[in-house]
Structure formats: C-alpha cells, structure tokens
Design brief:
Helices cover 84% and strands 0% of the residues. With 483 residues, it is an all-alpha fold. The protein has one domain.
C-alpha cells in the first residue's frame, strides 16, 4: 500500500510542478493580453466575477468538503447522493443568474457587464456535473490526474484568449477562453476519475453532509463578500479602469499564494484528514508546511514590495504603472494567504468547520467596516489597506485557534518562520541601501532593475544557507523522495 507520506509528497510534487507550468503559461498569456487589451477590459471581466463567484458558492452546498473526510465504508453511497443534488443546483444557478444579470449590472453601475455575466453563467452547468468526480480525485490524492486536467484547461484558455484578442474582440476573448477552460477541465476530471454514478439517494447521508457543510457554506458566503466587496467598492466609488489596475495588482500579488502555495494546502487537507486522530502528527506536518511555504513566499512578497514599479514596467508596460502602490500593499496580503495554506485545512480535517467559519467571520467583519470609508478617502490604497489589516488579524486569530486545537506553542510557530523572515529583511535592507546609494551606474533602467533583482535573489539564498545549511538540502530531498 502506498504510504500517506508518499501520497502527500507525490501530491505536492505534482501540484507544484503542474502549477509552475500552468502559471508560466497563464502569466505569459496575461502579459500578452495586458499589452493588447485595455485596463477597462480586465476590469469588466473582474466585475462579472463578482456575480459569478457570488452564485458559485452555492454550487456544491459544502458537500464536496464533506465527501473528502467521509469514511470509506459508505463513500460510494455518499457520492451518488451528492450527485443527485449538486448538478441540479448548477442548473438552477444558471437560470437564476441569466435572469438576474441586468439587476446585478445595475447594482455594479455597469450595464455592459450584463451579457458577460449571462454567457459566463454556463460554466455552472458542466462544472457541477463534474464536482463529484473532481472531489474523488482530490479525496484519493490522485493529484497527477487533477493537475493534468487543470493544465489542459489552462492551455485551452491561453490559445483561445490570445487568438480572439488578436482578432480584436476585447473582453470576449477572456470570457470565451474561460468557458472553454472550465469545460475541458471538467470533462478531463470526469474521465480521469473513472467514476460512474448510480441511481441511489440516502437521506441520512445527505443530512450528515449538509450538517458538516453548512459551516463551509456559511464561510463561503462570507468569504465571497470579503473577496468581492473590494471590487464592488472600486467599481461604484472609482471606475472600471481602476478595477483593471487592481485586478492586475491582485493577479501579481497572488502569483504564489493562489497558483502554487494554495495547492500545498489542497494536498495537506486530505493528508491531515488521514492523520486527524493524532494531534502530534498534524502539528509536525503543519510546522514543516509553514517552514517550507515561508521560504518561498516571504522573499517573493518582500521582492514584490521592493521592485513593484520595475515589475509592472518590465512585464506589462508603462500603461500599468498606476498600479504600483496598490501592488506593494497587496504583496503582503499574498504572503498572509500563502502562509494560511498550511493552516486552514486543519480546521476541516479535525472537524472544526465552525472554527473556520468564525475566523472567516472576523476577517469579513473587519474588512466590511474598513473598506468603504478607506476606499472613499484613499481610493485603491484604502481598499488595499483594508484587506491587509483584516487578513492579518484573521490570520492571527486562526493561529490562536490552531494553538488550542493542537496544544501548540507560539515559539514553535515563530521558529518555523524565522529563517525566511530574517533572510527577507536582510535582502530588503541591503538592496534598498544599494539602490539609494546609486550603486549601479548605467543608463538602461530596465537592465538596472534586472541586476538588482538578481542581487536580491543571491543575497536571500546566501543568508538562508548561512543560517541553516541543511534547509536547502531538505528541499532537495523533499522533491527527490520516491517513497
């Protein structure tokens, strides 16, 4: 039998490897699209997802999370029960969204978004039919197949979106590309899972899954409001062009947390679930996860803060420079979300979905209280600071709850983060000193930026190596492990 350690490491390797390829493709596509499309096109696409994401939280009713921790003895019956409910919900959501799109567009102060929402709503139909097969791949830690499905969808999006953008169809290049991406991914996940539904429904199991999933669903509702209120405020208080700048800044700041390190959290949830009875084992895996994630995420965050204008100019072009300051703020939001990837799965794996809901509630209440007044007063920066403060507070509250659940000391948490944190500070201070002293004297500012980025990279890993010579070797062993 394949060990849990092997499944976990294999899952991390597959998800990270595929995510790297995905992100390279997606990032390259975004770079090209950002030079063809306008900030308003990106803003319109982001605005449509306020409604798409809002309705999307209901598509699985929390049943997918309930299936992940379901015992093997009745998993087949539970899957068939879930398959009765989730696709039906997808069809209902499509119909409701189609007819409510004009109302949503009016609320968002942009009638142009109506048809974009209506067309995007079709993703609920086929994504809900694939939700149970997708969850089974996840539950059984078959991340190779799950990541291949995601990679196929990413490639389709890139090809279609670029072709259509070059043909001058504007925002519709993003819309059509995204729909085909979800279709290909959903079809592939169904194919890879090998699962076939049966005509079977168990009321008792349905109620049990709903009881577990209700807090997941409640957290998702609050999480949606938290994740989209910033876009709503920007659209209503500022304009869709400002939302485009914000969307690009968020895309960059979440480069690691959303596309790489969140994948580690996805692997850790089923891994935590299988060792949920042993607090010591969960504690050990969590601290290791925090250590590895911080070594990757912290230099990215500090580097993005340091080189925000250089990155925007080099990658997207001069027209995106107004996003500089909001990118610097959101870089730290991305760091907090990345670190949370090692923590949030513990709540669900230990059956503490209520605690997860409470942490999300704290974050959302703070954000709701701050985002409107700060957004009105300080524009994009105000929205960014509201998100940063609420994210930080909720992260600290979540750490406090985890400490009680696992009987974990603060010292051990700090120990898992200190090497990356100290190395990042050294990198920041040294590079700032070199830049302020005008250390490099050449006329090409793009070349200067690249040289300073290279220096920052070398300084960070040199300090890491001097502080703990074994840590880089541990990374190598992690990804060369064969079980």
């Amino acid at each position: 039998m394949i060990s849990l350690k092997h499944k976990t490491i294999s899952g991390i390797k597959w998800t990270l490897a595929a995510s790297i390829v995905q992100r390279i493709i997606s990032f390259g596509t975004t770079v090209v699209l950002a030079r063809i499309l306008s900030p308003a096109d990106f803003g319109l696409f982001a605005l449509a997802f306020v409604m798409i994401d809002g309705f999307g939280i209901f598509k699985s009713l929390g049943f997918d999370s309930a299936l992940v921790r379901r015992k093997d003895v009745d998993i087949e019956r539970a899957c068939n029960t879930a398959f009765f409910l989730i696709p039906a919900m997808g069809m209902i959501l499509f119909v409701i969204l189609f007819f409510f799109a004009p109302i949503g567009a009016k609320f968002l102060n942009n009638p142009q978004v109506t048809n974009v929402i209506r067309v995007l709503a079709v993703i609920f139909v086929f994504s809900c039919f694939a939700k149970v097969p997708q969850t089974l791949l996840y539950r059984d830690m078959k991340f190779k197949f799950k990541t291949l499905a995601e990679l196929g969808g990413t490639i389709i999006f890139s090809v279609i979106a670029l072709i259509l953008a070059f043909r001058g169809v504007g925002v519709w290049s993003l819309v059509i590309g995204y729909i085909l991406r979800i279709f290909v991914q959903s079809a592939s996940e169904w194919l890879y899972s090998g699962w076939k539904p049966k005509f079977e429904f168990d009321k008792k199991i349905a109620w049990e899954m709903f009881h577990f999933g209700k807090y997941i669903l409640a957290s998702s509702i609050i999480g949606f409001l938290y994740g989209n209120l910033d876009k709503i405020v920007i659209a209503k208080v500022l304009n869709v062009t400002m939302l485009g700048y914000y969307a690009i800044a968020m895309n960059l700041s979440s480069f690691l947390s959303e596309y790489f390190l969140s994948k580690v959290g996805m692997v850790l949830y089923p891994a935590y679930s299988k060792i949920q009875e042993s607090a010591d084992d969960v504690k050990h895996v969590m601290l290791k996860g925090l250590s590895y994630i911080s070594i990757i995420a912290m230099p990215f965050c500090f580097g993005l803060f340091l080189f925000a204008p250089d990155v925007l100019r080099l990658v997207f072009g001069e027209k995106w420079m107004p996003a500089t300051n909001i990118l610097r703020v959101l870089a730290f939001v991305g760091l907090i979300r990345a670190l949370g990837g090692a923590i949030w799965p513990i709540f669900m794996a230990r059956g503490k979905s209520k605690a997860d809901f409470q942490v999300t509630l704290v974050q959302s209440i703070l954000f709701f209280a701050l985002v409107v007044p700060l957004g009105i007063e300080y524009g994009l920066l105000g929205v960014g600071f509201a998100m940063l403060f609420s994210s930080l507070v909720s992260f600290l509250v979540g750490i406090g709850r985890i400490r009680k659940i696992l009987n974990l000391s603060v010292i051990k948490i700090i120990d898992s983060l200190k090497i990356a944190l100290l190395s990042s500070f050294v990198m920041l201070i040294v590079v700032l000193f070199l830049k302020l002293s005008d250390f490099i004297k050449i006329s090409n500012k793009n070349l200067i930026s690249l040289i300073y980025m290279g220096i920052a990279f070398l300084i960070y890993f040199l300090v890491i190596y001097l502080m703990n010579k074994s840590i880089l070797r541990n990374f190598k062993e992690l990804f060369s492990y064969q079980g």
